[in-house]
Amino acid sequence: MENLISVDLLGEVVSMIFIYFDRHMAFYQRAFETEGQNSFEEILTLKMTALVERIFDQYPMRDFEAVSFFSSQSISHYYGIVTVIIIKLWLQEGTKRNTDVDQVISAYKFFATHSFDDVIDIENPNY
Length: 127
Fold this sequence. Notes:
Elements lengths: L1 H5 L3 H14 L1 H7 L8 H19 L13 H21 L8 H13 L2 H4 L8
Helix pairs in contact: 2-6, 4-5
């Protein structure tokens, strides 16, 4: 994956992650059942966070005033958690609906590139 990150193929990194989990679905469905300290979910979150940190090492973050007080490590952790949650939900729920891995990849890319306001059907969200 390091090579893909270094040559600007981030979409391929995402696809490879989800295709891997698709190929080993039964194993990882069981792996997510473990809970508590050193659970699979906790370890995978650390790995995904490290992957996002690697991406931030390669590509600097944009400077947004609204999130400037967060460190790149905190933002990496946020995206690591989101990635793991999408994988977990897909393995737990998406398989019941026969969700194709390409649909999950598209959904992940949508959530990774859109805000909450893009998801809800309301003209002017009033926060």
